[in-house]
Amino acid sequence: MVRSQGSRLFTRALCYGATKTLAVDQGLNRAGGALGGGRHSVSGVTATVFGATGFLGRYVVNELGKIGSQVIIPYRCTEQDTAHLRVMGDLGQIVLDPYDANDPSAVNKYVQDSNVVINLLGRDRETWKHSFEKVNVDMAANIAKAASEAGVERLYHFSCVGASPDAIGKKFRTKHEGEVAVREHFPDATIMRMAPVVGVEDRLLNSIAFMTRRMPYVPLYDGGETKMQPVYVLDVVKAFVETLKHEGTKGQTFEFAGPETYTMKELVTLVEKTIREPSGSLNIPSSLGKLMDSPRAALQASIPFPVPTHTMLTSDYIDELESDLVVDGSSLGFEDLGIEPQRIDQGVPIEHVRFWRSGGYDFGSTFE
């Protein structure tokens, strides 16, 4: 529950800059200047960001702060976990407050003074308290309903490539259900589907590097033939800012994917080469992988805390790999926004993986 003292601070922080008017159709701020005048400028955007403490959230908050926006961040973690967000905007422009995600009235409180609401909530695997249905569907619906009732002008719902009612993976099925629920409550919502995102804090390349360095093997389910188009995190955030500038993006669905398609096996090879480690991949039939995870899954369903395991070893993850995570070009994307996405196998997008080298960032092992 929200503390009373925090509520008073939250209310005072919103006294400045709260507005329902958002003039960004031509990339203009409230004063008529170009949107993106810097952290000391006033963009006229008051944005509530749910899920701001996650991987993508920190980049979204930083971009909003860079264009002079006030950002309201409800959080469920410890205060220390939000410290990096406090410095991303001008003094008083980043407003953080603890909240109960299961309380619809708490959601209403955080959107009533905003003209932009962004939902970044999501999970890689289920826990006893937070199932995929609860996070991807129920919470998404609560946010969309609250935004609609508050008269919010823009709602952004972040989903993922692969979301489908026919998907084998439960995560992807509930992501689709969440999109439907959002559209029901807020028809003009902008839905942004992302391919697997890479960056310093990602859970794709870092997970492969972790398994390569710390585990006996890297599992390649059914030969690692699943195809995907990993996308660089800064390209996704750049696209988000572009959609914010134009009214025509309301009610649209975007799909953002990288320019290159890789199989899971090729991604593992890329990481092994980058961190200079010998191949440690092991081909495992998906049926065997699910069988190996079944004791953990059964235990997880009966206890209120996460059972320690790596996401790449769970049945949900194996189910996700049953379908290729590539875009078919039927939705809007980077090209429609004038953005050329970066390759993830060279330059800055892959740079963070080098820190996994056993001899350090500059040296690494002697393996070639």
Explain this structure to me?
With 368 residues, the protein is α/β, with parallel strands linked by helices. It has a domain at 4-198 and 229-260 and 326-342: NAD(P)-binding Rossmann-like Domain (Rossmann fold, 3-Layer(aba) Sandwich). It is 34% helix and 14% strand. The protein contains 12 helices and 13 strands. It has helices at residues 4-13, 55-66, 83-86, 104-111, 132-149, 170-185, 205-214, 233-244, 264-274, 286-300, 315-320, 348-351; strands at residues 46-50, 70-75, 94-98, 116-119, 154-160, 190-194, 197-198, 218-221, 227-228, 231-232, 253-256, 262-263, 281-284. Strands 3-2-1-4-5-6-11 form a 7-stranded parallel β-sheet, sandwiched between helices. It has a two-stranded parallel sheet with strand order 7-10. It has a two-stranded parallel ribbon with strand order 8-13. Helix 2 crosses helix 8 (233-244), helix 4 (104-111) crosses helix 5 (132-149) and helix 5 (132-149) runs parallel beside helix 6. The radius of gyration is 21 Å and the shape is globular. The N and C termini lie far apart (54 Å). The model is unreliable at 1-28 and 30-34 (pLDDT under 50).
- The overall pLDDT average reads 86
Radius of gyration: 21 Å
**Class from secondary-structure proportions:** alpha/beta
CATH class of the domain at 4-198 and 229-260 and 326-342: Alpha Beta
Helix content: 25-40%
Cα distance, first to last residue? 54 Å
Give the CATH superfamily of the domain at 4-198 and 229-260 and 326-342: NAD(P)-binding Rossmann-like Domain
